[in-house]
Write a structure and sequence with these properties.
The protein has eleven helices and no strands. The chain has one domain: Orthogonal Bundle (MetI-like fold), CATH 1.10.3720. Helix 1 packs across helix 5. 77% of the residues lie in helices and 0% in strands.
């Protein structure tokens, strides 16, 4: 049995999770700690992938990532390679689809953060950047880990948007979810069952981590 799709899914999830955290951290900070006009519209835009069907989102991403789309043309001019139906295209699609899953846990952690700690940090002479890394991050680490875990899990299980943007190219864009679908189509139920069982195990392990973090945070916030 070929486990390449599982390895490719894990690789995609890892790369996407790292990039999502780098983008989600400043975004969540902006939403929680800053007041500006249009925040409501930005929050709604971030949450859009939660309600738009993945195939619909994937269709429009395919259009803009294709050889005639502005992202596709820009990527080709920069790298000499196409964007659609490549691993880079899968990463881009995963960032769009997984963005709200990374932002929401971090945003929730920031909202529970005691803002008076920031005021004290500023009084002590810390810059906003220093206060962010020395005060905010250590006190919201559970939210960051939860965001990373959820982003990883969601990317591992993506199907519709991945199929639209990447297709099913063995070794390049054929991830585990697509492999399971094709196994069933070809009546290869044993292979589909094995790969599905592995993905269920990974998903359950991820849920254990998230629930453990939520339980730990609840105990930390409960009065003695």
């Amino acid at each position: 049995m070929d486990f390449t799709p599982l390895i490719l899914s894990a690789k995609l999830a890892l790369v996407s999770t790292v990039l999502l955290l780098l983008i989600a951290l400043p975004t969540a900070y902006l939403l929680v700690f800053k007041n500006f006009r249009g925040k409501f519209f930005l929050e709604s835009l971030i949450g859009l992938p939660l309600v738009v069907p993945p195939t619909v989102l994937g269709f429009y991403l395919l259009i803009i990532m294709g050889p005639r789309g502005f992202l596709g043309q820009g990527w080709t001019a920069l790298t000499g390679w196409p964007l659609a139906f490549t691993f880079a295209g899968l990463v881009g699609a995963s960032l769009v689809q997984g963005f709200p899953f990374a932002v929401q846990p971090i945003k929730a952690a920031f909202e529970k953060f005691d803002h008076r700690l920031l005021e004290m940090a500023y009084v002590l002479g810390l810059t906003p950047l220093q206060a962010f890394f020395k005060i905010v991050i250590p006190n919201t680490i559970n939210g960051l880990v939860a965001a990373a875990v959820l982003a990883f899990a969601h990317t591992m299980g993506e199907f519709g948007i991945i199929l639209m943007v990447g297709g099913s190219i063995p070794g390049k864009t054929k991830v585990a979810s697509i492999a399971v679908y094709e196994y069933v189509e070809n009546l290869q139920y044993h292979e589909a069952a094995v790969m599905s069982l592995i993905m269920i195990g990974v998903s359950y392990a991820i849920l254990l981590v998230v629930n453990y973090l939520n339980g730990s945070q609840a105990k930390a916030l409960s009065p003695v």
